[in-house]
Design goal:
Shape: globular
Radius of gyration: 9 Å
Largest sheet: 2 strands, antiparallel
Oligomer: single chain
CATH class: Alpha Beta
Strand order of the largest sheet: 1-4
Structural class: alpha+beta
CATH architecture: 2-Layer Sandwich
Bound molecules: iron/sulfur cluster
CATH topology: Alpha-Beta Plaits
Strand content: 15-25%
Helix content: 10-25%
Protein backbone atom coordinates (compact mmCIF):
# COMPACT_ATOMS: atom_id res chain seq x y z
CA UNK A 1 0.00 0.00 0.00
CA UNK A 2 1.24 3.47 -0.82
CA UNK A 3 2.00 5.94 1.91
CA UNK A 4 -0.46 8.72 2.70
CA UNK A 5 0.10 12.05 4.49
CA UNK A 6 -2.24 12.85 7.38
CA UNK A 7 -3.64 16.22 8.45
CA UNK A 8 -0.77 16.47 10.96
CA UNK A 9 1.36 17.75 8.05
CA UNK A 10 2.85 21.22 8.65
CA UNK A 11 3.95 21.61 4.99
CA UNK A 12 7.66 21.77 5.78
CA UNK A 13 8.62 20.06 2.52
CA UNK A 14 11.18 17.69 4.02
CA UNK A 15 9.45 14.58 2.72
CA UNK A 16 9.27 15.90 -0.84
CA UNK A 17 13.02 16.50 -0.78
CA UNK A 18 13.65 13.00 0.62
CA UNK A 19 11.44 11.06 -1.78
CA UNK A 20 13.62 9.22 -4.35
CA UNK A 21 10.90 9.13 -6.99
CA UNK A 22 9.41 12.62 -6.53
CA UNK A 23 6.01 11.22 -5.56
CA UNK A 24 5.30 14.06 -3.11
CA UNK A 25 4.00 17.52 -4.03
CA UNK A 26 2.48 20.42 -2.15
CA UNK A 27 -1.31 20.19 -2.11
CA UNK A 28 -4.01 22.60 -0.99
CA UNK A 29 -3.73 22.21 2.79
CA UNK A 30 -0.83 19.77 3.09
CA UNK A 31 1.66 17.80 1.07
CA UNK A 32 0.28 14.85 -0.85
CA UNK A 33 1.69 11.56 -2.14
CA UNK A 34 0.86 10.28 -5.61
CA UNK A 35 0.04 6.59 -4.98
CA UNK A 36 0.78 5.75 -8.61
CA UNK A 37 4.38 6.89 -8.19
CA UNK A 38 5.18 5.91 -4.57
CA UNK A 39 7.44 2.85 -4.26
CA UNK A 40 6.76 2.49 -0.50
CA UNK A 41 10.36 3.06 0.57
CA UNK A 42 9.43 4.78 3.84
CA UNK A 43 11.89 7.68 3.47
CA UNK A 44 9.13 10.27 3.90
CA UNK A 45 7.94 8.72 7.17
CA UNK A 46 11.53 8.67 8.50
CA UNK A 47 12.12 12.28 7.49
CA UNK A 48 8.87 13.89 8.65
CA UNK A 49 9.19 15.85 11.95
CA UNK A 50 5.57 15.18 12.90
CA UNK A 51 5.11 11.62 11.64
CA UNK A 52 2.47 12.55 9.10
CA UNK A 53 3.23 10.01 6.33
CA UNK A 54 1.96 6.52 7.14
CA UNK A 55 1.16 3.38 5.25
CA UNK A 56 -2.57 2.71 5.06
FE1 LIG B 1 8.31 8.73 -1.72
FE2 LIG B 1 9.16 6.59 -0.40
FE3 LIG B 1 7.42 8.24 0.76
FE4 LIG B 1 6.62 6.73 -1.27
S1 LIG B 1 7.31 6.00 0.76
S2 LIG B 1 6.20 8.90 -1.03
S3 LIG B 1 8.47 6.65 -2.55
S4 LIG B 1 9.55 8.73 0.17
FE1 LIG C 1 4.25 17.44 5.85
FE2 LIG C 1 5.87 15.80 7.17
FE3 LIG C 1 6.16 16.15 4.55
FE4 LIG C 1 6.83 18.10 6.25
S1 LIG C 1 7.83 16.10 6.06
S2 LIG C 1 5.66 18.33 4.32
S3 LIG C 1 5.23 17.84 7.83
S4 LIG C 1 4.39 15.22 5.59
Amino acid sequence: MAYKISDECISCGACAAACPVSAIAEGDAKYEINPEVCIECGACAETCPVGAPAQE
